[in-house]
Amino acid sequence: DPADDMGMVFAGGKFDLNRTALPLSAFFDAMSSLTKFLVVNDRVEQIKFKIILEFEEDEVILLARAMTGCEDLFFFPIEEALPHARGSIELGGKEAAMRLQFAIRRLLKVICSNLKGVVLFIDDLQWSDA
User: Do 69 and 31 meet the contact criterion of CB atoms below 8 Å apart?
Assistant: First the structure.
């Protein structure tokens, strides 16, 4: 594949109507696919190191709890950290959504800075707000 030869990554996710409680499920599915690529191609350790430098522990826990399937990106087993940080990551409503979106943008910046190109394809996005 020419895109692979150039170091570019294509990851896709599909919105699942059975998971309507998770409006970002298609995005998280694509991120899980991207994580698998990074693991298979030995790129995850580089990214883990940058995450350690860029993120506070509670931000990593927030991302890991929201983005199931992406645990390999993070530098500690999430089950070990949850009892210590649960109170610090509980937010409600708009504040929680904004904090998660900000953390996701920062995570994408870290990942993309280690790759030559990333395409996240989100299928059936129109159903995410149903």
Answer: yes
